[in-house]
Amino acid sequence: MATHFRSTGKKCVVIGGSGFLGQHMVEKLLDKGYSVNVFDIQKRFDHDRVQFFLGDLCNKEALLPALQDVSVAFHCASPAPSSDNKELFYKVNFMGTKAVIEACKEAGVQKLVLTSSASVVFEGTDIKNGTEDLPYAKKPIDYYTETKILQEKEVLSANDPDNNFFTTAIRPHGIFGPRDPQLVPILIQAAKSGKMKFIIGDGKNLVDFTYVENVVHGHILAAEHLRKDSPVCGKAFHITNDEPIPFWAFMSRILTGLNYDAPKYYIPYWLAYYLALFLSLVLWLLSPLIIIKPTFTPMRVALAGTFHYYSCERAKRDMGYKPVVSLDGFYFYLIVLIILTSLHEH
After folding, report:
1. 270, 301 in Cβ contact below 8 A?
2. Is residue 258 in some structural domain?
3. Sequence-separated (6 or more) residues with CB below 8 Å from residue 198
4. How many Å apart are CA 152 and CA 253, to the nearest integer?
5. Which domain CATH number covers 21?
6. Measured in Å, how far apart are the chain's first and last C-alpha atoms?
7. So which residues are the catalytic ones?
8. Is the pTM of this model over 0.70?
9. CA–CA distance from 106 to each of 1, 158, 224, 337 (Å)?
């Protein structure tokens, strides 16, 4: 039975609010006048205007206190994509999301906005200006993406306007920004170890990278447009910077902005891919004797050497989305400076 329903729309919960995206979401929601709860498995920051609830999101009973009197739930909790823990991915991304949906319905939460991923349609081959009408990947690039597909399907199918429960999924791609624990730190580590000398392919493949503020903006817009008869209900939306950039140009700009050398030697895509495939086979054959986690994999080669950028036209049309931060010129170098400052602080 639904309880404690509030219709003001100004009280929300950020599930996964201690994470990279979650913290930025909390900050922007507070700026916009929302009352914010955070539900997470750990508390990574303090804020006198935020109420924290600690627990396992797979436990519906643990979730319920964080959802009382809440109108909007933002669900951005997930293990890091770089993890290789299949059991954890399935537990958190799929089973945990089922628990979130059940708890939202029981608590009378009206709106659920999921952080999905544009990679749910990516199979390692070129995607140019891909729309949300592309089918889900039949062969996802990794287990993280496989469980994100399951998660997104679960959330979108839960959309139930007749019972005042509205859902949507936001599909960002290549999120980066201050306090980023993945893209930039991994890039810096690779540069320090001498692994950023080669450009895979011809260096012209366009990719979407998305500044974290734009991702947050897309989530909040989606929540504000979720209502009966809205085209946002039960749909997925690509949210990017809407300015595809050559993958290796982006990497080079980040590296040079942080005083590292840009890659300058070219290796054909097919050669890199089959070398990575051969290495994966060798490591699989050796796995009964020794476990080695490779960093040079076919999936990473595909991500670095193919086109994969996505259309934001649906988000523009249905909820008025427009990126708030651009990658062009001065702004890009300002972003690099902000990232560098955040790395020193953390």
Report:
1. no
2. no
3. 263, 265, 266, 267, 272
4. 33
5. 3.40.50.720
6. 44
7. 144
8. yes
9. 5, 13, 22, 45
